[in-house]
Amino acid sequence: MNKSVLEPEVQHYILDNLKGDLPQLLLRKSPFSDVSMQEIVQQIKGRKVAEKKFSFLCKEQIYFPPQLNLEQASSESTGQYKASLVAGASMVDLTLGMGIDAFFIAQNFSSVDLVERNKDLLDIVAHNWSVLGKKASFIHSDLMDFLENNTKHFNLIYLDPARRDNQKKKVFLLEDLSPNIVEIQDRLLSIADRVLIKLSPLIDIAYLVSVLHSVEEIFVVAVKNEVKEILVFLNRIKRNASPKIIAANLDSSEPECTFYFDAISTAQSHYSEPEKFLYIPNNALLKTGAFNWVSEKFGLKKLHPNTHLYTSDEKTQDFPGRILEIESIEAKALQKNEHYNIISKNHPLKPEEIKKKYKLKDGGERYLIFCQSLKNKYILRSKG
Ligand SMILES: C[S@@+](CC[C@H](N)C(=O)[O-])C[C@H]1O[C@@H](n2cnc3c(N)ncnc32)[C@H](O)[C@@H]1O
Description:
- The longest helix is centred in the first third of the chain and has 17 residues, at 37-53.
- The chain is flat.
- It is α/β, with parallel strands linked by helices.
- 30% of the residues lie in helices and 29% in strands.
- The mean pLDDT is 94.
- The protein starts with 7 loop residues before the first helix and ends with a strand.
- β17 (339-345), α14 and β18 form a beta-alpha-beta unit.
- The strands form three sheets. It has a nine-stranded mixed β-sheet with strand order 3-2-1-4-7-9-8-10-11. An eight-stranded mixed β-sheet has the order 12-14-15-13-16-19-18-17.
- It has three domains: 3-61; 71-260, Rossmann fold (3-Layer(aba) Sandwich); 266-382.
- Residues 72-74, 95, 97-101, 115-118, 121, 142-144, 160, 162, 178-179 line the site of S-adenosylmethionine.
């Protein structure tokens, strides 16, 4: 961390160039002898990310870390959500990173230990927390060494493991993360009441339940219907063979859904051809895989075992997802250049292919759903 970046004239230069062309800026000579253009651009990029992702850091004297740390950091809204789930006397975040999660979670604890192996990043976060008036113990250590030497007991351990590589593999395992949670889970629970682990939305829930010993709850967290993270609580005492699953869609008015893991395999669906209303569960609920539970819980009929759309003649309120009033139409009813939000569920044509084939445009108020029931293929159009 270069403290000269915090000098008032450098801070003004950063604010004056927030809208500047960054590649062009990088070609210029820095006006400051002790601050490089790369350092200035790092601050501009950080500030821009912060405006969208964690606006509480858009303050004078805040120092932004390199791009990778910004990308790995949680957003303000998911950090706040995590904070709403935990409280106690003592906590430790073993993978501090940029400290966004820790910043919110720490509000509910009186003793806060923060561990990070990247010294420069730790110094940056310690500086930012002092600007923000927050207190904690900042510990520069590999978490394995910290665990080795630790003598304290914590109410909560928080971990947001980093991916070992940056390849976006479709499926990945806990072994691909640093730290390897499978290996250290028992050790963590020997010094904490609860462990909260943040994982990628790509991870499979059944896999988690099979490899972790003491899962209490699993949260699927979406923001505006985009699944952002999976949160797993391990509990030292409450070992649950069928953990609680919670699907939450933040920044929406949709209700949270809570059920037990068993329900994913034990619930039964009723099936029907499309009726008056069509229900599309939100992506957090879809990610849980509790497709039959949705039918049971909301008294809705499913179109087909592999079509995760539901239907009813009477409108069901408080559904965690989209409710459309629909009509079934023939392909010839589709007019060229009409605007639709196109959805394809368990249908041979993908939305892009549908758009091309019927010369349709994206957008507008109405939905067009290509799907199949147990008996037929359908084109359903929302009214309105
Ligand atoms: C995904 S980031 C955490 C982001 C953080 N939750 C936030 O909101 O800003 C993971 C961090 O864990 C750190 N880390 C990974 N393995 C570690 C280890 N064995 N010991 C200490 N820190 C580690 C990495 O350096 C990285 O900064």
